[in-house]
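Lecture 7 notes: from sequence to structure.
We start with the chain below.
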Amino acid sequence: MALNPNWPVIEEAWGPYWNATTALTPTDRFVEVTPTTMGKSDSKRGRQYELDQIQPGTASTVLSNSTGTLDPANTASPFYGKIAPFQPVRRRAMWPPSINILSQIMATGGDLGGYAVGANVQGADIFSDTDPSSSGIVAASATAFQGANVLQFSVPSGSAANARICYTPETAAQPGQTYTVQMRIRNITPGTTLQVKGSQGWYLTPLASTTTFAYGSAVTLTGSATAAWTQITATATCPAGALGMNIGVAVAATAGAACTIQVDAWQLEKGSSASAWAQPGVWYPMYLGYTNQWKPAFSGNQYSTVTPNSVDALSLLSQYILDDPLTEALTAAGARFVYRLDEGSGATQFADATGANGVVGIINSKNGAGAISPGTQITATDPIGGVFTGSSGTVTTFTNPHPGQGAGFPSSVISLPTAGIVGPTNPASWTRAIAFRYTGPTPTDAACIWSSMDRQHAATGTVATGSRVFLFISTDSHLHLTIGGPGGSYGSVTFTANNGSFPNVVDGNWHLAIFGWNESTGEMRTSLDGANWFFTGFTSAITPTGLVSDSVGAWYDVGLGGAAGNNWQGDLAFAAEFTTYLFNPNTDAIYAAWKNSFTGESTNARYLRILAYASNEVGWIIQPGLTRSMGPADFAGQDAFTALQAVVDTEGGSHFVDAAGWLNFRSRGDRYNATVPVYTFGENVAGGEFPYESIDPDYDTTRLANVAVVSQVSPASKFTAQDATSIAAYGPRTMTRTVNSTSPQECQDAASYLVSRYKQPAYRVAALKLHPSAYPALWPVLLGLEIGTRVRVMKRPFGAPPIQIECFVESIQWDLGDQNDAWCTLQCSPADLTPYKLFAAWHTTLKTTAASGVSSITVNNSQDNVNPLAAQLPAGTQLVLGLGTANQETVTVSAVGATSSGWTSAVITFTGATTKAHTASDVICEVLPAGVTNATTWDAVSAFDASAFAY
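Predicted structure tokens for the same chain:
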């Protein structure tokens, strides 16, 4: 494998193994197409301005397709039927280049790669068939083949031949390419032997296990605490149609005893023989996305090229339309069905919001019809606290006669059997939920919300004696649950509040009931308005099997020919069932969604919630948000991308898909705290700057704003800030923003911040072009650069002072040519140059003992050792020496010695001599307010992000 020392190893890969995805972020099992790239490959991620909505990342590459292998219509292609839209694509680069194409942690036994000794390495894409952890650990070793660490795996006695001791599927497979894998391996368990062999495996079927293997020669490892290292190899050619590969070491003969195996100097290279081990460079991700266009081209009647165009996860998330918060919460909990009962007036059938079941209809009792009226607005006796906001739809009203009385009355019910639903799917483990508002009189018998039963009854009368599930309000005005089995055994419990009382639900207000049964633990569960209770001690005898009716709105008995009673009067909504027994995290989320649409949760919690509803596959990195209490989730009908952006707008932070395909959420504190540039781009290479080819600066009014109007979502309010000086200079320039925070102070703070930030025009970098192929030292800088990184751009015009631009990277564009030419173009927004600070007591400790009568002391660094100490302690500041000691005294600062970033000690000079001696480690601090004796009192709240004090 020939290497160009000035060009990284580039891998262009495509993931047909994964089929079409919904934003899965895979790290392995790809097909390498690098050798077929032609012309230019490009990618772009980010946005133009810091207040813009992030744009989905895009990438494109042109591939040679002269054989038609990559044409989805070519029935002779080994990939026929396996090319589909939204399959993942990956571009990554290794720098510095190496013939060893494994990641550093694999190749070096954990010396490099960021894993500590003792850490499990499954997260590094290293797996094991034999080790009980399904992976291995990094272990320290004084006799490692190279470095100081090794990878260590367990092999239990009886481990079968071909079981892989360790393997990785990370490297993309190139069909037709010959690969050689090698590693050093040893057995460190005395008194044992184990036969092993090098292994290469190929994935030939989407989403399936490895189906084809090739092995090297078997070797025997004799166990010893001082065992020598043995080299194993395996050489094989990747077959046509391979969708991925894995390489490692396998058991060659059944293990006769348990042993511990160590691996070091692991290498995978392209070629038919093993070269000397080489340390690989760092694999930097450049782009991970999903094909949205696969465009073949022909030259006459000959295949020519194919151009896969791709988008990142944000584009896929834009295709998911969110429902109301309650429906989303119910669905996320694994709902079998969700009948919202929110159809319009006059409807006689009700749809399942999950789409998994048919519509349910209304049936009447044999004694005549009652009345069921959909399309009612949500109301309550208490119009503020007695309603729910998790759905803005309507509800269904039941006005069956004689509510809460016995049997034999006209009645109408919503019948689930009309959709084929008769009781829980699994009678031994289930949960149901329903929202209700009772408007009838106190029951004289019972008001039944939901009833299910078999055909068994007492010898006389209408009492059900077999399997049944009844949810009802009894004569005590409390909500009850009865579950019974076919043999007559049953359990009955009362829904209970957190304080142990039994709530009155005959109050004309809305309530949410969640109830279920778990046969394996003998447990019935209830949850009324978020109060969770579990009742134990029941047996499998109450499992309700053999149900034949399932009705909402009354007690309806098929066994008695459609008799009904215990009629319901009031409103019902959201009848749902779950195929498992739910626990508190699910029921709490459902209640929060139902009652107030998750009002009060932080921005990071809201962001993660939306992401979970839209896709459970995308990888994410989420920072804690500084908006700690959002208003109601108002995302019904929005696509997930738009809903996520609204959360980011409220936070005043940012989000983006990084180069590895992971979705990042950054708080507004992320840029507040980035006070020092990571890199400086400019002409002074000798001074540590990195050169660029050209700069396109901009200084205009695009982001000039001197009037900011912030709209609070709930309650609907507007908050305004303005700057008269800026208005006088530039005229009114209005910026609007929606902030879904419950805090009016935060909304006003947001408006004030926006005016402070944008009342004056700022210097921007519309384009900064860098040329790493011409200046290779740029490769690790640009490959490691990410959106949101703070950088400094220097420009030194002839005959004028240098221009220094502090900015954040907003957009990264790569253009790679097939003639080893590469360009990276950055778009940057100006950093906020307003200094922010928090007030607390400055404090440190004395570095060396000081005698009485000295006029200067040496102190250790304080909490802020980045900024100069002189900037923190100006002349005239009063300091307390020896806080809390018998020799405590107060002095005045005259001057502070010079310090630089990272300082560890400093000299402070006073206006006069000390009058007492002080010992090393004595506390030195600012004068504290009366009654305060601890200089660290405000430390916990004086760090950025400790309080959401500013926007």
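Points to note: The radius of gyration is 35 Å. The longest strand covers residues 282-299.
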